[in-house]
Amino acid sequence: MSSEDVRRVCYIVSNELVKASSLLPSNKNRSLLVHALVKASGLLNPANCRDNTHLQVLRPVLADDKELGAYHTQDYLQFVLNPAHASAADDTNCAEFGLEEDCPTFVGLSDYVRLVAGGTLTAATALREDRADVAICWDGGRHHARKSEASGFCYVADCILALLTLKRMHRCPDSSVRRPRVMYLDLDLHFSDAVSEAFLDSSATALGPQILTLSIHHSTPGFFPHSYLATLRDPSADRFDPFTLSMPLDRGATDATFARIWPSVERVKEAFRPEVLIVQCGVDGLAGDSHAIWNWSLNDGEGSLGWCVDRICNQWGCKVLMLGGGGYNHPNAARAWTYLTSIALRRPLARDADIPDHAAFPLYAPSFTLDVPAGNAPDQNGDAYLDEITTYFHEVARMIEERMSTCT
Prior knowledge:
The chain has helices at about 15-20, 30-40, 65-70, 75-80, 90-95, 110-130, 160-165, 195-200, 255-270, 305-315, 330-345, 385-405; strands spanning about 5-10, 55-60, 135, 170, 175-180, 180-185, 210-220, 245-250, 275-280, 320-325. By secondary structure, it is an alpha/beta fold.
């Protein structure tokens, strides 16, 4: 899609989705804050769009049992979708399904699961049916939920469900049937363990690779989640899967760090040549987040989160599904996803734009501006390690190209 083509953007939101997502114990009222700022910034008014952009605001279609069962087990769904279990914290089944500690049950959980999964699937379906070029669901991006277990504040595996939807064959305008290649790129501070595990070795079929996952994250001993897949695994190992990838970064990662690694990300993308990209835009790596691990800025220039997403939306030439994820400084999460929405709409807001007057305005003190600047934390990602990443992914991209060349 060239810059002159009309871009069709769909944005997923409804009062019911906002209400349900705002009940999430780890992020209470974050959804309300996000969508309120996006709306107050004038981004949900189709009349404000440029001539080369068409916006459609879509209500999420509730995910039904069949759609959720495309990945989750029936036992898990029967338990988590039963409103009677919403306050059953002492139920022995809670532990079996991971519904404890960081994932407690809560009133409204069944609606939350259906609405969040439904929101992401509504966005994915719009892309799959060629009714949109970019689809946005900031309430999605739950990348830790497994088949029968909640984990890491995630109760439903909407990322996995979206990948399963987008990989399905569909008929092209010329009546041919093809199997689209789908890339999943995760920018969250935490490793996308459940997504990576779900598609590990999925490329080992006669029909060839169809899904590639790449997670950029922080990974040190004791940091959630623990997984051997979160490391730079030996590409010469017999069981190495070049379509399930990780790019771990140390503390203090800055815009400069991301500017250094981004050519490797694009090298992988070019080798795989996806037709659709899912980008999980977790913002817990931004400066100011309570995790205080990375020192990433929103829009300070080359290598910033906004710069990366701008390249994805405006230079990669594929359909894009934009999802939310982590982010525990709620005003900064709202700033970030509002700014990324403006990029998708081809009308990027100014870095120092004033927060518009609306009900949540006082929460944006003391700056009352859109930017999320980097702090002063030292970057522990040295030149030697970043050079290692470059060399590593050059070899991995070569392996991907070699494998893709053997596929029809």
